[in-house]
Specification:
The structure holds 2 protein chains of 2 kinds. Chain A is mainly α. Chain A is 73% helix and 2% strand. Chain A has a two-stranded antiparallel sheet with strand order 1-2. A two-stranded antiparallel sheet of chain A has the order 3-4. Chain B has one domain. Chain B starts with a helix and ends in an 11-residue tail after the last helix. The model of chain B has no long low-confidence stretch (mean pLDDT 86). Classes of the chains: A mainly alpha, B mainly alpha. Chains A and B meet through helix 27, helix 28, helix 29, helix 30 and helix 31 of A and helix 1, helix 2 and helix 3 of B.
């Protein structure tokens, strides 16, 4: 029975459990600044609190309840943060958190003392969070997101010792293989969701029959299996796994036992109810598992590096788990789940024991490490027990799942008649290899004479470094001796999630009587030990006859060739010339426009709208524009003259805005014009007065032609647009500005209210441009050109300076007035910001940068940040009132003495806009202004030196 | 009037295009400024020419101009300044790095 308050807390706990590792990763980073042990304790506390959060959920989940939660994320895309805790998820959660906790303890001793461990634990926790997300996701797309998080974080963990070349190569390979599999998986899950009509597992799992009958079933299956097999290191994608041994041993122990590679088999288990039960599943999953199982076991014994041996053993055992799922009988699925537990326990302990030996000996070469039993008897005992479990020695947990496997191979439904003996024989042969490599690990490392030429004398490790291994080996024994009590209930719950149509009755027991599987086990032991005994002879045979398969080398070759192809392609396509790029772009756009117009029926240009009468002012303005634009073009080589002509154009554009009823735009354009011109003038100082580069006449002719065609095209387009009637969506804005937004200036209400989110983005862009400019110019040293340098005296006319100073408060008052009235009359944050910026800028111009900088000691970057914060906070504030982001409100206040006036929350937003605009402009201008100061200071200091 | 406005925008576009195809950084800055005038005007005139009052909801007004293009253009003008400023900084940086003001840093190809 479930207690009620728990069912209320369940969703919260589940969400917490997933959030804890990610938040914890940040905490660890902070703790690592304090000390190494603070980082370790924090990391351990994070993992432990995840386990604590799980405890209240245990009883219900073990009894078969499925707990689901949902936080809407992108509901219209069918993507929510939907989580699910069932028996399968529980099994993996326990492994991830439990073994994770032991790994954290172990790593504190294993990792070198100079490492502060902040990065290590943060990555490890983020990785654990990713794994938890995979096993707890209810939404398959969400599962994929976490799947990719595990790929990325494992990449970073494998490359933890990034200064080592092989670590970087190994990490890249792991990322390429598992990331590629992730892409296939994404496609498979999208298809699956499409067929099932939902990305929710609850829906998908219930539609197994529909999915299996669908014509796309084989495609889905292959894509999903690609994801699972790459992650689980199945042949032929196994090669990244041994290379990943470049990671620190705690990482290997974690990745190879409870996580990462188990994510692949988890996926098989998760989608087992949907995808299994077909011939194709049996063939694909069964054969891949079988090949991997045998291949990994065969190669393992050939490795002299014991981490390499363990890596291939991991591949082999994952192959076994895959094979068990592939056999596709209810009992084999149970055996697969059981072996997932057993393998996690003994492999984690083996890796940790191996890490201790590596730590104590300074090498991992089994040809040099011998006789460790004498030096560290206690660690050796632990290692021998764990290796025994790996080999399947009775009374240890590995034996139980292996016996279950042997039982399933006997009389399997796919091998009837004369083929009955095939599967058991294959299983026994693979068993022989497993026994042999386990024997090599035990005999070579712990016995077999004396160590050869070790860099240091090994001895027992610190007490607590061994502790995690002791716990795990204890579990090996407990599960091995009392399986039903130890894991019976969790296995039952997990099997319930994998086999929704009914879990077969099973009882885990050590003794099943004298039967064929036991005989197979005994045969495997006998032959395996013989194989190990005669290994030199067999190694010789391998050297002579085995084909040289070097997947990593092949992978690297493909990788390198792909890189070469890309750079060759880039050389061909990329002309590295801005002029050519732009010319191509213009030609392309022109052709596109012509093509679009040509394909219109009748090719009409003039629309039905009656034309408005021309007035004299308009003709005068066009004349001004002509002078300005043509002048800019003609004199563009004389920069100062060109800037003057450009300002004429800006002025005419401002007039046009006034003429066509856009007072806000006119105000904006005018003030932007002022700052732009000052900006351009500031830059002129550092550019040669006369342009040196010249184009050929042919080039000019070509560009001129292009420009004319482009200009004519845009003119035609404009004319076509202006003469056609249109539907505007502004009716809504006009109708609702006053009632809904509390302002009569509709342009401003759109900016700060209706489309406030856009404006937030736009001021962010402005801030980024200013910061980018700062980053570019910061530290830049430029020589002013000789001619302008002569006028370096930097005189500031007294009249101008004296006039500008009292003008500042006046101008600021105007700016504030413009800001406040903006909601109702032309004005607002943008214009007010521009006016204030111009007011400050005038001080710089009139009195010189030294005078102004000494008096206006603002940190523009801080103001910039404050403005963005204010604008964002106004938007967020609406969340406090349970409204969507950036909902605005307004009201009227009646202070005594003065007329009532209106206050809108959007005004606060406008203040944010104001600050960002002021700070961006002044940051840009003062940066360019100080460029010249820098040079002067450098000059005067060099003069003093000489 | 429609023809006049179209011609003006075409003129700005043509001048801008010619300038951005020049080999010096400063010309590109000038050209982009002209182009942004043209684009802003094009968007602005998406509200057509016939308005008889600015988009202010004041008593007794009618025939308001379309406020949406105006709002779009207002921020575009300010961002245009940001772009120009960044471009100028980029030009100066390129000058500092390569010693000349060619758009391709003087790499003759």
């Amino acid at each position: 029975m479930r207690i009620d308050y728990l069912s209320d807390m369940g969703p919260l706990l589940l969400n917490l459990m997933l959030a804890i590792p990610f938040v914890g990763a940040l905490l660890v980073l902070a703790a690592a600044r304090r000390s190494r042990s603070a980082a370790a304790w924090t990391a351990a506390a994070v993992m432990a609190s995840g386990l604590v959060a799980l405890v209240p959920l245990l009883p219900a989940t073990l009894s078969g309840d499925v707990l689901t939660t949902r936080i809407p994320w992108l509901p219209e895309w069918g993507l929510d943060i939907a989580l699910r805790l069932d028996g399968l998820g529980l099994l993996f959660t326990l492994l991830i958190l439990g073994i994770g906790l032991l790994i954290i303890l172990y790593a504190a001793y294993y990792m070198p003392a100079y490492d502060r461990l902040g990065r290590f634990y943060a990555l490890l926790l983020a990785f654990a969070g990713g794994m938890l997300g995979v096993v707890l996701a209810e939404n398959t797309i969400l599962m994929l997101v976490f799947w990719e998080i595990t790929s990325l974080t494992s990449f970073l963990l494998i490359a933890y010792k990034y200064e080592a070349f092989d670590a970087r190569i190994a990490a890249r390979m792991a990322l390429a293989v598992t990331g590629g599999g992730g892409l296939a998986l994404l496609a498979g899950l999208l298809l699956l969701g499409n067929i099932a009509g939902s990305f929710e597992l609850t829906v998908i799992l219930a539609k197994g029959d529909v999915i299996r009958a669908h014509p796309y079933y084989p495609v889905v299956l292959v894509l999903v299996l690609l994801g699972a097999f790459t992650k689980s290191g199945q042949f032929p994608f196994h090669f990244w796994l041994p290379n990943a041994m470049a990671a620190p041993t705690p990482v290997s122990a974690y990745l190879h036992s409870a996580t990462m590679v188990k994510a692949g088999v988890f996926l098989l288990a998760r989608l087992y109810p949907v995808l299994s039960g077909t011939e194709l599943w049996l063939v694909l999953v069964g054969s891949t598992g079988a090949v991997t199982f045998a291949y990994g076991a065969y190669v393992a014994i050939l490795k002299h590096d014991f981490k390499g041996l363990l890596a291939y053993s991991t591949i082999s055992h994952l192959g076994l788990i895959t094979l068990l799922f592939g056999l596709d009988t209810p009992m084999s699925a149970v055996a697969a789940l059981f072996h997932i537990i057993n393998h996690a326990i003994f492999k984690a302990s083996l890796f940790m024991a191996a890490g201790i030996i590596d730590h104590e000996c300074g090498t991992r070469d089994m040809r040099r490490i011998n006789g460790m039993f004498k030096y560290m008897p206690w660690t050796a005992t632990l290692g021998i027990l764990a290796a025994g479990s790996m080999a399947g020695v009775p009374l240890l947990n590995g034996f139980l799942s292996k016996e279950m496997f042997f039982t399933e191979t006997v009389g399997h439904f796919a091998f009837q008649g004369y083929a009955t003996w095939l599967l058991p024989a294959f299983a026994t042969v693979a068993g022989v290899f497993s026994v042999a490599y386990s024997a090599r690990f035990v005999h070579d490392v712990f016995f077999n004479g004396e160590p050869v030429d070790l860099p240091k004398t090994p001895h027992e490790p610190p007490r607590w470094m061994r502790f995690p291994v002791e716990i795990l080996v204890g579990l090996v024994l407990i599960v091995g001796l009392l399986p039903q009590i130890a894991v019976g209930s969790i296995l039952q719950a997990a099997a319930g999630a994998v086999l929704p149509s009914g879990v077969p009755e099973f009882k885990l027991a050590v003794w099943h009587g004298w039967n064929l599987p036991l005989a197979m086990s005994l045969a495997a032991f006998g032959l395996g030990l013989t194989y190990y005994w005669r290994r030199q002879y067999l190694f010789g045979l391998h050297e002579k006859y085995a084909p040289k398969i070097a997947s990593p080398v092949a992978f690297e070759r493909v990788y390198r060739d792909a890189g070469r192809l890309a750079s060759w392609l880039l050389r061909v396509i990329d002309t590295r010339s801005l002029q050519r790029y732009l010319a191509t772009l213009v030609v392309f756009v022109c052709l596109l426009g012509v093509w679009a117009w040509m394909s219109l029926p009748g090719r009409p240009l003039t629309g039905p709208l009656p034309s408005t009468p021309v007035d004299g002012a308009a003709i005068a303005a066009l004349a001004g524009l002509l002078v300005g634009a043509v002048g800019t073009v003609v004199w563009h080589r004389q920069r100062l003259v060109a800037v003057i002509f450009l300002s004429v154009v800006g002025l005419v554009v401002s007039f046009a805005f006034i003429r066509f009823k856009a007072p806000d735009l006119a105000l904006t354009q005018l003030s932007v014009e002022v700052v732009t011109i000052v900006l351009l003038l500031l830059s002129l100082r550092f550019l040669p007065g006369e342009v040196t580069a010249r184009s050929s006449s042919l080039r000019k002719l070509r560009d001129g032609g292009l420009a004319l065609v482009g200009g004519a095209g845009v003119a035609a387009l404009t004319y076509a647009m202006l003469t056609r009637p249109f539907e505007t969506i502004s009716g809504y804005h006009l109708a609702n500005a006053y009632t809904g937004g509390g302002g009569t200036n509709v342009v401003n209400v759109i900016l700060v209210d209706f489309r406030g989110f856009d404006t937030l983005g736009e001021i962010a862009v402005l801030a980024m441009a200013a910061l980018g400019l700062h980053a570019l110019v910061d530290g830049l040293r430029l020589k002013p050109y000789a001619e302008s340098a002569k006028r370096d005296a930097d005189r500031h006319p007294v009249m101008l300076a004296e006039m500008m100073r009292p003008l500042l408060p006046l101008a600021l008052a105007v700016s504030v007035y413009i800001l406040l009235r903006g909601h109702n009359l032309p004005g607002g944050g943008f214009i007010a910001g521009l006016i204030a910026a111009v007011a400050f800028m005038l001080q710089y111009l009139a009195s010189g940068i030294d005078f102004a900088a000494a008096r206006m000691r603002f940190d523009y970057m801080r103001i910039l940040g404050a403005g963005l914060l204010i604008a964002t906070a106004t938007g967020l504030a609406s969340w406090l009132f349970d409204r969507p982001f950036m909902t605005s409100t307004f009201g009227y206040v009646h202070p005594p003495m003065i007329e009532k006036f209106e206050l809108a929350s959007a005004m606060v937003f406008d203040i944010g806009v104001f600050l960002v605009v002021v700070a961006s402009i002044l940051l840009a201008l003062s940066e360019l202004g100080t460029l010249s100061r820098r040079e002067l200071i450098a000059k005067s200091s060099s003069r003093e030196e000489s | 009037m429609e023809f006049l406005v179209s011609a003006a925008i075409g003129l700005l576009t043509a001048s801008g295009l010619y300038l951005i195809l020049r080999p010096t950084t400063f010309s590109v800055v000038l050209g982009l400024t002209l182009l942004s005038y043209a684009v802003n005007a094009l968007i602005f005139f998406g509200g057509r020419l016939g308005a008889s009052a600015p988009p202010l909801i004041l008593p007794g007004t009618d025939g308001h101009a379309d406020p949406l293009p105006q709002a779009l253009v207002l921020t575009a003008i300010v961002i245009g300044f940001g772009m120009t400023a960044y471009l100028v900084a980029l030009a100066l940086k390129a000058k500092g790095e390569s010693g000349n003001d060619h758009v391709d840093a003087g790499e003759e190809r």
